[in-house]
Automatic annotation (TrEMBL):
IGPS catalyzes the conversion of PRFAR and glutamine to IGP, AICAR and glutamate. The HisF subunit catalyzes the cyclization activity that produces IGP and AICAR from PRFAR using the ammonia provided by the HisH subunit. It comes from Halodesulfovibrio spirochaetisodalis. The active site is at D11, D130. GO terms for biological process: L-histidine biosynthetic process. Belongs to the HisA/HisF family. This is Imidazole glycerol phosphate synthase subunit HisF.
Length: 259
């Protein structure tokens, strides 16, 4: 059985670490480089960096911040935000990322997934999905809709069908972020995560809603995720990564202990 991963998420706006609730009300909470180093030292399995306004503002990712983070950590590092072309992918990887997360850019141009996978390998291409629960319609039979541009633009696309398409195009992993659960600390959207995990064969990262170790354990068991993305509970000092790993391990999850 593979170890389950804990992945701190660094949402960055204007070069600063930020956090909101349900993609709204973001506040400045610190320096992303210092925070990434802290989580690396604590034993994070991977770190994700999202430039959360790049797509909405029509610009590329802040590569200088990516370079600074990459120089301080020595674990897998995934970056996303404003990745709209193979060149954008190359630039992010050259800046020190090991994976690139495509979200809005892939919805608008799905071929970027297959092109990136062909150039850099499936393992380097992560599909980021921002998902909101909506009424069931003919176009959205699952009741889960894809939303892009940082939660601003509804696409009338079914999330489960998009996950299947992305896997077929060559995505090596999917990060499923529930907009409804984001920042609430009320738990992950387990039905969403599980439904997508059962629809594809690639690893799924649960994102949005972590409030305690039980939520994370539920995500990797009931939700069938291979990893749990976290933000608020570590950003605000409620838990350390070693504490989360110890408690999840005590519940029965296989964790990579690094101390």
């Amino acid at each position: 059985m593979l170890s389950k991963r804990i992945i701190p998420c660094l949402d960055v706006r204007d070069g600063r670490l930020t956090k909101g609730i349900k993609f709204k009300g973001n506040v400045d909470i610190g320096d992303p480089v210092e925070t990434a180093k802290k989580y690396y030292d604590e034993g994070a399995d991977e770190i994700v960096f999202y430039d959360i306004t790049a797509s909405h503002e029509g610009r590329g990712i802040f590569l200088d911040v990516v370079e600074k983070v990459a120089s301080t950590i020595f674990i897998p590092f995934s970056v996303g935000g404003g990745i709209n072309s193979v060149q954008d992918m190359r630039d992010a990887l050259n800046a020190g990322a090991e994976k690139v997360s495509v979200n809005s850019g892939a919805v608008k141009n799905p071929d970027i997934i297959s092109e990136g996978a062909a150039r850099f390998g499936n393992q380097a291409i992560v599909l980021g999905m921002d998902v909101k629960q909506v009424p069931v319609t003919a176009d959205i039979p699952s009741g889960y809709e894809i939303v892009i541009h940082g939660g601003r633009k509804h696409m009338n696309m079914d999330a489960i069908e998009w996950a299947k398409t992305a896997e077929a195009l060559g995505a090596g992993e999917i990060c499923v972020n529930s907009i409804d659960a984001d920042g609430t600390k009320d738990g992950y959207e387990l039905n969403l995560t599980r439904t997508i995990a059962e629809a594809v064969s690639i690893p799924i990262i649960a994102s949005g809603g972590a409030g305690n170790p039980q939520h994370m354990y539920d995500a990797v068991t009931q939700g069938k995720a291979t990893a749990a993305l976290i933000a608020s509970i570590v950003h605000y000092g409620e838990y350390t990564i070693p504490e989360l790993k110890r408690q999840m391990s005590a519940m029965g999850a296989k964790m990579r202990m690094s101390w």
